[in-house]
Amino acid sequence: MCCECDCECRPLGWLLGLPFAFLSLIVSVVGILIWIVGLLLSCICPCCLCVTVAVELAIELVKAPLHVMRWFTSQIPC
């Protein structure tokens, strides 16, 4: 809160977060694979609760690059 402007554009945070976003993008690809397998398993046996938990975890892994970039840009002042 030390900056005079209340801007949302923080290019330095975006640039610093780029390598970590790339790593989380790889994790999100793994999440997509887990999500597809989990959906197939939940169609075969919908009573299995652990498959549902795995699918929800996979969805969070897919969202990981967005969370990483938002966190990095919020840590750097204007």
From TrEMBL:
Keywords: Membrane, Transmembrane, Transmembrane helix. It comes from the Eukaryota. InterPro entries: TAXIMIN_1/2. The chain crosses the membrane at residues 12-41. This is Uncharacterized protein LOC109717508. It comes from Ananas comosus (Pineapple). The gene is LOC109717508.
